[in-house]
Amino acid sequence: MAYLRWRRVLELVSIDRPALSPLLLRTGRKTPDAGANLTETWDTVYEEGGYEHLSRSDQRHHHRLLAALIAEARPQARVLEVGCGEGVFYESLRGHRPAAYLGVDVSPLAIDRARRSVTDPVATFSVGDGAAFQPPGEFDAIVFPECLEYLGEPSDVLAHYRRFLAPGGVFGVSMWMNAGSIALLRKLRALETIRDQAVVLSQWGGGWTVVTIEG
Ligand SMILES: C[S@@+](CC[C@H](N)C(=O)[O-])C[C@H]1O[C@@H](n2cnc3c(N)ncnc32)[C@H](O)[C@@H]1O
Predict the structure, then answer these.
(1) What is the pLDDT of residue 27?
(2) Looking only at Cα atoms, what is the longest distance across the chain?
(3) Ligand 1 centroid – CA 2 distance (Å)
């Protein structure tokens, strides 16, 4: 417990002191090797139950905040979620009555589970690589809950999706705080216009940064 509290202090301090995060924090997240078969890699994670914890209530506070910020910026939005996994974020979005929702993920297994568990007619799902996905039509909000860090250079990813944002649209991002995501956040803050930025602390230590960005 003392370690987790200490780690939380380091993470919060590191957000505004860029030099500290690589020195003090190890990257906690395993990113697939370059050239790895993404479908197989992520299907295996889901097969092995690696993301079962994501549906727990205490893992979804960042979803709730992100969904509320999106709904405040663009009420009843048409929402695209990149890296939607099993569709858990939609549970937080549903109460805000989105006009439409499309979730895309590189894992066919996760998308199959999402289709079975989310039966709302507003929600649809598709298999695709979020780094280059060409969605049909335009969206008022495009969100990346715990996914942007897997897609490459964040500014390239946002530039790709900006073409599919309606005028006045917004991006939404949430990331578990570690050295990698703190570095990514610094890039976003340098290159993009941030609307909102907040930290959601978990009850066991550490937390998520939640950001909305002008489209
Ligand atoms: C930590 S999970 C987050 C799932 C979901 N967004 C949530 O918050 O519950 C990361 C997700 O990103 C997906 N992912 C990773 N790389 C991807 C890519 N290149 N294209 C699409 N999805 C990807 C994984 O399959 C996984 O479902």
Answers:
(1) 43
(2) 49
(3) 31
Domains detected in the chain? 2-29+56-214 (3.40.50.150)
Structure tokens belonging to residue 41? 């890699």
pLDDT recorded at residue 8: 60
Phi, psi of 55 (to 5 degrees): -90, -5
DSSP 11-27: HHHHHH-TTHHHHH---
Question: How far apart (Å, rounded) are the C-alpha atoms in residues 34 and 11?
Answer: 27
Q: Which of 215, 114, 94, 91 is nearest to 165 (CA)?
A: 215
Regions in the chain scoring below 50 on pLDDT: 26-29
69 and 210 in contact (C-beta within 8 Å)? yes
Residues 21-42 pLDDT 10s? 555 554 444 556 656 799 999 9
Q: Which atom of ligand 1 is nearest to the CA of 81?
A: 6
| Residue 145 alpha carbon to ligand 1 centre in Å | 8
